[in-house]
Amino acid sequence: MRFFLRHVVRYALRHKSLALINILSVALGVSVFLAVQIANRSANAAFRAGIDVVAGRANIEVRGTLDDSLFPRLRELAGVTAATPLVERVVTLPGWPGEYLHVLGIDPFTNSSFENFKFSKSAGEAFDADAWFGDPRSLAVSKSFADAHHLKRGDSIRVEFGERQVDLVVSSVLQAKDGDSHFAAMDIGWAQELFGLQGKLTGVLLQISDPNHPEPVYERIRSLVPPDAVVQEPGARSGQVEQMLSGFELNLTALSMISLLVGVFLIYNTVTASVVRRRSEIGILRALGGSRAKVRWLFLGEAAFYGMIGSVAGCVGGVLMANFLVSAVSTTVTNLYVLTSIDHFYLPFWQIPLVVSAGMASVLVGAWIPANAAANVPPLHALNMGVLIERSERPRVIWLVLSAGCVVAAFGASALALRGCPIASFAAAFFTLIGFCCLSPAATHRLGAGAGRFFRPLLLPRLAARNLVRSLYRHAVTVAALASALAMLVSVSIMIYSFRRTIDRWLARRLVADLFVAPAANEIVGFENFIPEDLMRFLRSQPEVEMIDTFRYLDLRVNGAPTFLGVINGSGRSIPDFLGGKNAEKYKAFRAPDTAIISESLSRRLKVNQGQTVSIATPLGSRRFLVAGVFYDYSRDSGLMLMQEANFEKFWHESRVNSLALYLRPGTDIEKMIRRIRTGYPNAQDYSVYSNRALRDAVVEVFNQTFAVTQVLRVIAVLVAVIGIALNFTVLVKEREREIGTLRAVGVSRRQVRGLIVWESVLVGIMAVLLGVVTGVALSVVLTEVINKAFFGWTIPLQIPWDQLFWTPVWLLPAAVLASLPPANQASRRNIIDIVRTDA
Fold first, then answer.
1. Beta strand pairing status for 515-519 and 687-691?
2. Which residue in 144, 146, 409, 634 has the fewest CB atoms around it within 10 Å?
3. What's phi and psi for 372, nearest 5 deg?
4. What is the mean pLDDT of residues 221-234?
5. In the predicted model, what is the mean pLDDT of the chain?
6. Given this model, what pLDDT does residue 595 score?
7. 596: buried, middle or exposed (CB in 10 Å: 19+, 13-18, 0-12)?
8. In this structure, what DSSP letter does residue 578 have?
């Protein structure tokens, strides 16, 4: 222990700047990795907790539109020990724009055994039976919601659904466990009356006597309920959502792990620096009988010392960073998958040791090669710096062989991913990144040699190019680290740009109407509200309206899998773009009876193609529909099925719609038409009316929010560039003290010393830009053609944002110069006499 403290801790205290940069590099990678884990787990935990609030200790749930006469029959089934009815509705809160309440209509007499939530027993918050049963406006809200909105018993809350606004009264407070604070409860009878569901239920929860063998009870339940009702374990919904989120979360995790990989390069640099600076100590220690293992563990211990401090600091930073990341992930999950609100961080106790272990593992991996090299260096060579310099001038062929091997492995992993093993796509990305990083020694050597010839007439640039080659052992690793961070930035930028251009083309084809009308509340709560007949008649009576398309959205099961269905009726002007072309022909076939079309991602998920049939659960039982075509769609990665309204009404016997697309006559002033709708229809304030351009802008805004989470990962590239270059040149200045002193002694000015180091940093920056951009383009191919298709099933043509790539060196080269200035100034200010005396 004393040996460790003397040789590791004391060395760190003597070189505080190096130690600080090293700790920061580890902390950065760990904090990003932990923040992503917190965000992912919090999103899943929030949805699971929401299900627990509704289902409690239920073993089976029946969901769908059910006659309440079914409830006593379900309760009396053999094997059922308890049952409770439910009515659910999501309402918006005009008093708090953007917020909602998930209202549960419950029966307190039958609900008690399910223990999904309890009423507060505090004074002024306890259950008030008189208000609950006697007041149709009585509502119980969660403790966290009441506290956040400063509500107490007797306060009113205005809720909105459809065209109705109703003032409800807080009568009591719920003590839900860790669920979404946006849950509220009221008596089921009042809920049925409030939401116009007299005689109807939206669900029934059941407890059974033998939860380990529920199959007989399932069969009895299915024999009673409508064919399109969903009968499942409550946890199945959570599993379905987690499966939908898995691709999104895995992509975030993979991107966050790049920061750990970059940390490996930086640790390699630092430990290599320590080995170089202490070569004479290594030689003396080995000459005095010190074993190779002792030398190896000395440097591994130094890396572990930095790694432990950096990992702990990274955990603190990760929790702070999660504040932003959780909000961004919550927005993305709501936009793309399911309505959720993340009120609490979810950080299991074992997550911190796991993240610290990941940080320590990355540190030890980065330190192993230089530590092992230090252990194997002969004592005589340890005292001769020239051996290292001569060896470093010649890049080894092994790196080119490794690069080729990684590229081959990347192709193999890509093929495996596209054949049904999505997780292999991350291996493809990893091998691609490592393969190009292995080119760093050869590429840096070629750049240095070429720059030396190009700058032959100029002293400082020529010396800088020579130093680039002489210190290849150091610069190649720095270039690899910077190129990795830059590749992450470039690849994500290309992927987002390609996706954005694809979305633009998709919107141009699908959004062709002049105006779009939908209930405003649906932007918050999903497709809960419908267009009333009064509004339909009002719009059809307008002389400027030439045609109206209608849309209906709902969840159902296709081939037993939960799927999103869109029901359309109208002009046929908005024709999807089909795989394989022949759009008009396939859309005409789509109008035939008992046909549907499915999106590309749904086709991949269900393994169903054009010409095949699918089984759809309808109120009249399971029916088979012919797939008339597979179309491109980017609205949801879980997939979408489209059906003509005539086919829908044939089996569902209803014609309610969620939104309208209006085609106006030529020459109509669109803004004037919007004003007429807002002033002419009595409840126009309850509806969103978008022009074509405004709706496209709204979709683009959702797109930007979806990828806001990647902004954190982009910032890493800038931070790594600054940290990596600062670390690299701080170490180089320490190594070259004698050389710099000699140059100063023969007449080189301080300004020239600074210029020499700055020029070298520019060359490192140029090499990092070149390698990073090439690696980023290769990674973007993996992102769009492999990871995207393996997880999301979307076709996204690769498009390069040349203007963004052009600006990459514009910000990186100044960053390289700025990062090199502190060590350059430090080198120029050293006293010549002290350096020469040390050399002597």
1. antiparallel
2. 409
3. -70, -40
4. 83
5. 80
6. 94
7. buried
8. B
DSSP calls for 358-383: HHHHHHHHHHHHHHHHHHHS-HHHHT
Instruction: Give the separation between CA 390 and CA 130, rounded to whole angstroms.
Output: 91
| pTM for the structure as a whole | 0.71
- Would you call 340 helix, strand, or coil by DSSP? coil
In a 3-state reduction of DSSP, which class is residue 334?
A: helix
Q: Which residues, including other chains, have CB under 8 Å from residue 467's CB and lie 6 or more apart?
A: 756, 760
> 111-149: b or e for each residue (b if 16 or more CB lie within 10 Å)?
beebebbebbeeeebebbeebbeebebbbbbbbbbbeeb
605: enclosing H helix or E strand: helix 600-606
Query: CB–CB of 455/461 below 8 Å?
Result: yes
Each residue's pLDDT tens digit, 137-180: 999 888 888 888 888 888 999 998 877 889 999 988 887 555 56
No. of H helices and E strands in the chain? 33, 19
Checking DSSP bridges between strand 595-599 and strand 621-631, what pairing results, if any? parallel
**Phi, psi for residue 728 in degrees, rounded to 5:** -60, -50
Do strands 200-208 and 640-644 pair parallel, antiparallel, or not at all (unpaired)?
unpaired
Q: Across-strand partners of 563?
A: 556
Strands (E), 122-238: 138-142, 156-161, 164-175, 183-187, 200-208, 230-232
- Count CB neighbours of 73 within 10 A: 14
Q: 3-state DSSP call for residue 627? A: strand
Bridge partners of residue 595, in order along the sequence? 626
Q: How many residues does the chain have?
A: 840
Tokens of 181: 């604070």
Task: Please state, as a whole number, how many other Cβ atoms lie within 10 Å of the Cβ of residue 669.
Answer: 11
Q: What is the pLDDT of residues 422-464, one digit of tens each?
A: 888 888 988 998 899 888 888 888 888 888 888 888 878 888 8
Helix (H, G, I), strand (E, B) or coil at 107: coil
Whether the CB-CB separation of 103 and 192 falls below 8 Å is answered with no
- Burial of 79-104, coded b for 16+ CB within 10 Å and e otherwise, reads bbebbbbbbbbbbbbbeeeeebbbbb
The residue type of 558 is: V
Q: How far apart are CA 387 and CA 276, in angstroms?
A: 11
Would you state the pLDDT for residue 631?
Answer: 92
User: What is the mean pLDDT of the segment spanning 244-265?
Assistant: 62
CA distance 497 to 481: 24
Q: Closest by alpha carbon to 767, among 430, 391, 482, 491? A: 482
